[in-house]
Amino acid sequence: MSKPDLNLLVQLDVLLAEGSVARAAERLRLSPSAMSRALARLREVTGDPLLVRAGRGLVPTPRALELRERVSQLVDDAEAVLRPTDMLELKQLVRTFTLRTSEGFVENFGPDLLRRISAEAPGVRLRFLPKPNKESTALRDGSVDLETGVVGLSTGPEVRTQALLRDRFIGVVRKEHPLSKGPMTAASYAGGRHVLVSRRGLERGPIDDALEKLGLARLIVTTVGGFSAALALARGSDLIASVPERHTGNLRAGMHSFALPVPVPEVTVSMLWHPRLDADPAHRWLRGCVREVCLAQLADPRTGNLLGDDAT
Length: 312
Description:
Layout lengths: L6 H12 L2 H7 L4 H15 L4 E4 L2 E4 L1 H21 L12 E7 L3 H16 L3 E7 L6 H5 L4 E4 L10 E8 L1 E5 L12 H5 L2 E5 L8 H8 L5 E6 L2 H9 L3 E6 L11 E4 L7 E7 L7 H19 L13
Helix pairs in contact: 1-2, 1-3, 1-4, 2-3, 5-10
């Protein structure tokens, strides 16, 4: 079965609105003969005369009257699909965005982001999900609108990314810990008892590689899957947690933080989204909010500097 010529819908809409072949031809910038041929084709495909002569004019048949509203709505809908998106009205926007974020993002950036969203678009809701891996499946299937984290080898090649900030690792201990007093050296740091953070249960990370180059090794007594758990253990014991500075700012309140005495590469934290949402006005606005909230914290002298990879 051949596909219908959808241009006929536009011609039918104008013919039914004008009730005249000549006026319809003028409106569509066609010749009267071309418009007459279009009416003949429409009669053929619908099996109905549609417009019949009554005196000097044309009147619609019952079938034409039945089709008039439906055809007009179809043409309006098609034009809306092909029309550039209207200006986004944030105050009228009602939408829920799902964000999959690295640990610490909600605790440190969530309050400012929610205040910004609430002020500009009170009908928008944010749903935060944890990020157990770097796979892009959730972005591809649409179950997640936006992610934050470190771009990895498992990130889909089509995924759009934009850098937000850079983070560095720091050491954290409880206030009364022996390492909270006096200068920190690589030997004193390595000589402590450590909690390792690894989502995949790894036995070492970049810090261990840096210590090894100095002929040192740290004693890892436990491994956890997230930074908040590592900090909770360090807060209640003599364990040393090594965590990203910016993403754990609020989680480290009341604890002693120090720069690592060994060089560990910084990491870049990015926003990630699927290209199908690239031109969506509401999604563009959300990305702008996330970016500006992060930049504002970068410029705030009260905050630190930035997120980790898998094991630290």
